[in-house]
């Protein structure tokens, strides 16, 4: 719907029908392999950075400014995420162009590199960051705010995690749609543009002010379930890892000095106010545990 070429993208239904009629039933899932290839590493870096940043900033501020901590942590996580995901995003959108000349992910990546060089994969990075920094700030602040309202104990609650994630994703998506349109123009290069300012001028010249909100409904409908699934999956694995680390207990873990910490916090894997050692370190801490006395030699 954000394409500058097609005149058949006035609504989600019209766009989908035109897509299938012209290019086949599988056309709507084109570019999926590029998403799969880029999403795993990008999200791993994203959540690891978020947990570490929130843990560090929480200690520095003594948990006095949690909303600022959550927003800033989301921004830092977004910088790392975008650096990993941007090449995959470029390939995905080139494959999804109207009448795309590319047949597969590797052919697309190879032809882009040969024709435009390595810079082509990061031409939209500045715009992606300009979009995702406010996106993630709104996203994380909204998620944590919703959790404080519907899940104040910060217990593992799948329904609360999914609801909070869906609402956070929808609000963040709606707020950043204009930048997403500019990013699409840069990635697809349907008309030559280099940088956010040129992309914005191109969209304005081609479609007017309403062009900046092309695909708004589709973007919100995509981000709501995507964010809900993402947060639910993340919180589920964090809960499982915390239980495993605690020896399958009730969520209360003893530290090395014999103290007690809450391992069930949503914001982190323990600590006061849900802030504790980051999830990314759970496996390392687990591997470093001293074997129980029954398994050690005397």
Report what the structure shows.
- By secondary structure, this protein is mostly helical.
- It has helices spanning 12-23, 32-61, 66-95, 105-116, 125-150, 158-175, 177-188, 196-207, 216-245, 282-287, and strands at residues 252-254, 260-262.
- The protein has a two-stranded antiparallel sheet.
- Helix 2 packs antiparallel against helix 3.
- The longest helix is centred in the first third of the chain and has 30 residues, at 32-61.
- It starts with 11 loop residues before the first helix and ends in an 11-residue tail after the last helix.
What's the arrangement of secondary structure elements?
Layout: H1 12-23, H2 32-61, H3 66-95, H4 105-116, H5 125-150, H6 158-175, H7 177-188, H8 196-207, H9 216-245, E1 252-254, E2 260-262, H10 282-287
Antiparallel strand pairs: 1-2
Q: What integer is the average pLDDT? A: 80
Class derived from helix and strand content = mainly alpha
Q: Could you give the order of the helices and strands? A: HHHHHHHHHEEH
Main beta sheet: strand number and arrangement?
2 strands, antiparallel
Silhouette: globular
Strand order of the largest sheet: 1-2
Beta-strand segment tally: 2
Rounded Rg: 22 Å
What low-confidence regions span 5 or more consecutive residues with pLDDT below 50?
249-298
Range of helix content:
55-70%
Percent of residues in beta strands? Answer: under 5%
Q: Report how far the terminal alpha carbons are from each other.
A: 70 Å
What's the total helix number?
10
Oligomer: single chain
């Amino acid at each position: 719907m954000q394409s500058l070429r097609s005149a058949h993208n006035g609504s989600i239904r019209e766009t989908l029908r035109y897509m299938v009629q012209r290019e086949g039933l599988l056309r709507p899932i084109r570019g999926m392999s590029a998403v799969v290839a880029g999403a795993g590493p990008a999200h791993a870096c994203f959540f690891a950075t978020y947990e570490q940043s929130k843990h560090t900033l929480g200690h520095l501020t003594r948990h006095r400014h949690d909303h600022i901590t959550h927003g800033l942590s989301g921004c830092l996580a977004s910088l790392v995420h975008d650096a990993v995901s941007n090449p995959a995003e470029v390939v995905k959108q080139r494959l999804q162009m109207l009448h795309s000349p590319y047949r597969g992910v590797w052919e697309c990546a190879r032809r882009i590199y040969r024709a435009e060089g390595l810079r082509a994969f990061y031409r939209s990075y500045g715009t992606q960051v300009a979009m995702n920094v406010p996106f993630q700030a709104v996203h994380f602040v909204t998620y944590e705010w919703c959790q404080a309202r519907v899940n104040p104990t910060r217990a593992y609650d799948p329904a609360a995690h999914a609801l909070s994630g869906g609402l956070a994703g929808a609000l963040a998506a709606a707020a950043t749609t204009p930048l997403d349109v500019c990013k699409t123009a840069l990635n697809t290069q349907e008309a030559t543009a280099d940088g956010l300012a040129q992309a914005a001028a191109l969209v304005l010249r081609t479609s007017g002010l309403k062009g900046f909100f092309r695909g708004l409904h589709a973007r919100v409908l995509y981000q709501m379930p995507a964010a809900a699934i993402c947060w639910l999956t993340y919180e589920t694995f964090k809960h499982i890892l915390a239980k495993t680390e605690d020896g399958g207990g009730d969520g209360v873990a003893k530290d090395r000095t014999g103290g007690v910490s809450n391992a069930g916090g949503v914001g982190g894997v323990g600590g006061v106010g849900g802030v504790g050692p980051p999830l990314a370190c759970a496996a390392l801490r687990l591997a470093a545990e001293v074997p129980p006395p029954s398994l050690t030699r005397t």
